[in-house]
Amino acid sequence: MKDRRLNLLLVHLALLLISAGFALPFLWMVSTSLKPLDAVAPTTLEGHSSLSLIPDPVVWTNYLDVIHNRRMDFPLYTRNTLLIAVLAVIGNTLTSALCAYGFAKIRFKGRGLLFAVMLATMMIPFPVVMVSIFSIFRWIGDHTPLQMLGTFRPLWLPAWFGSAFSIFLLRQFFLTLPDELCEAARIDGCSEAGIFFRIMLPLARPALAVVALFTFMGVWNDFLGPLVYLQRPEQFTLALGLHTFQSQHGGTQWNLLMAASVLVILPVIVLFFLTQRTFIQGIATTGMKG
Amino acid sequence: MTSRDRAQLMKGLAFTSPWLIGFLGLTIIPCALSLYYSFCDYSVLEPPVWIGLENYRELLIDPEFYRTLRNTAYYALLTIPAGLMVSLGLALLLNAPIKGQAIYRTVIFLPSLVPAVATAMVWMWLFNARLGLINTALRTIGLETELRFTLVNRILEALNIAPLRPLPFPPAWLSDPRTAMLALALMSLWGVGHTVVIYLAGLQDIPRDLYEAAEIDGAGPVRRLFNVTLPMLSPVIFFNLVMAIIGTLQVFAIPFIMTGGGPLRATYLYTQYLYEKAFMYQQMGYASAMAWIQLLIILALTGIAFGTSRRWVHYQGR
Q: What is the pLDDT of residues B183-204, one digit of tens each?
């Protein structure tokens, strides 16, 4: 028994050290974001940056400097990112749920094969289709009145065709709901659409939340998409804006750069804490198909 | 096919139609197009012109192609095994029944949520050669020296290979071509949380009685790890391996932001080269050929993983 206690103590110690290592970048980022510039990047060659984790003095105005910055329109970038995210979340959640219901609850010929094909598409790397999707969007812009390049559409429209990952996640959930539920409704004369909207969707709320959450994070974190499709600074998303901000005056104003990073990370962290359990379950499910 | 079957088929296709249309428009057609473009001279501004195998022939003698391929392989070899082992180790630790488990799990998981751009910012600051936390801390505790590789150089000399130049310590990390990739690989471990969660779910699925049976048979903790935990976890390890291969071979954002491929192109990765060919030099045909080679490499590697899986992945009762 003593052996066991010692073991657990060692596990504790190891985790304490490792957790400190994982948390340090966060702490250092927040600490730097609240320091005056001369404590972060001294102008003399011999000077070195302060190792203190507690900023002294605490410069809250760094955050205001970031928000009211001429080179990085933080509020506008936030608005752009949220706009794309909301459209993508609605589209992906709704269409993925439709498809997932089809794959889970409607027996039709070729369903298994179709589902396997869908899972296989998850392996196709984005760079393979990146160039041709870009040229397709260009073609649509040239040949229809619907402008694509230079708008947000290429960033949220694809979400309206479901995504293999979300469909998979939702199908797993629909499979856990008893078939009798649908059968009973069918006997009562409920249409397939009625079953889906009035019975299945309300029951699937937790799974829909996971999909919505992942989609939101995907848009919030996306860098390559906006980099390819957005050229004008007033259209930038936060990720793209932060990158531009860094390449323009990174290397010098590290405190402002860290403050901007904190602002970009904060919503994700808050969202995580609000939805922690749903979130972890969602990730765990993806590993289960192995 | 009976009329009922047909009705079911129509219903099924109707419900799955968003994905079916997307599959056609966002996967099948783009893949076919990109295959076609790979045989064309195509700059987007003008229609593609068929040039046969020219792009592929050019690729075979393109030193940048080989450089980015080599760099990507190096990055993958540094990060995939380390990432898989570190996350497995962390999952085993986090699976132990201890107080504060939830807090530890959260702290280790959180970094994997941080957007790539923000991750890049934080680590550029930490790795900063003159002002970064890592080097300032190392210098403060007096770890300032120069690595001369005397022993290695004596061997290299004997083999008639140019000796290694002395490396200052602490190194300049991202601004030294010899350590930049290492720094990128090191920081990639900060984001293993996602993989840890998948491992943890797998660990929780292992039936308790297997451990009890093993313990009764006299298996110690090490035997239990190698004869119960790892075999039972092998499908999850396999899943994580395949995901890591697919993900790592197309890594783009973090190296692109942190080093831009430098210094001296030491971190110039395949996807960045592809991106630049396509959207900076407008050589869409060339980029498409690169994309297809990338797809084939990924398919080949996952194929190899699947091929060997029969030997080491155990599916219980399935």
A: 999 999 999 998 998 999 889 8
